[in-house]
Amino acid sequence: MSEKSNYEIKLTRKGGVGANTNWHWVIQDAEGKAVKTGSAVGEEHKAFATARIAREKLEASGK
């Protein structure tokens, strides 16, 4: 069984190509309010993994 998260990840490409692609991510709560933002450089799956780790830390802290 997996538990549904209260947070949603939004990933947006801001520029670059290939290994130099710049990604911007936003973690939103159930109301759509931005809780945490960040950026990552590289492939899409790596940028999403970075945002997922930040979301897991938010969930663990109970915010």
Short description:
The protein has one domain. By secondary structure, it is an alpha+beta fold. The protein has one helix spanning 44-61; strands at residues 8-15, 22-28, 34-41.
| β-strand number | 3
* Major β-sheet annotation: 3 strands, antiparallel
Intertermini distance: 23 Å
Low-pLDDT runs: none
Which sequence of strands runs across the widest sheet? 1-2-3
Determine the structural class based on helices, strands and strand pairing.
alpha+beta
β content, as a range?
A: 35-45%
Q: What's the structural domain tally?
A: 1
Indicate the overall shape.
elongated
Describe the model.
By secondary structure, this protein is α+β, with helices and mostly antiparallel strands. The chain has one domain (8-61). It contains one helix and three strands. The chain has one helix at 44-61, and strands spanning 8-15, 22-28, 34-41. Strands 1-2-3 form a three-stranded antiparallel β-sheet, covered by helices on one side. The model has no long low-confidence stretch (mean pLDDT 91).
List the helices and strands and how they pair.
Blueprint: E1 8-15, E2 22-28, E3 34-41, H1 44-61
Antiparallel strand pairs: 1-2, 2-3
Please name the defining characteristics of this protein:
63 residues; 3-stranded antiparallel sheet; 37% strand; elongated
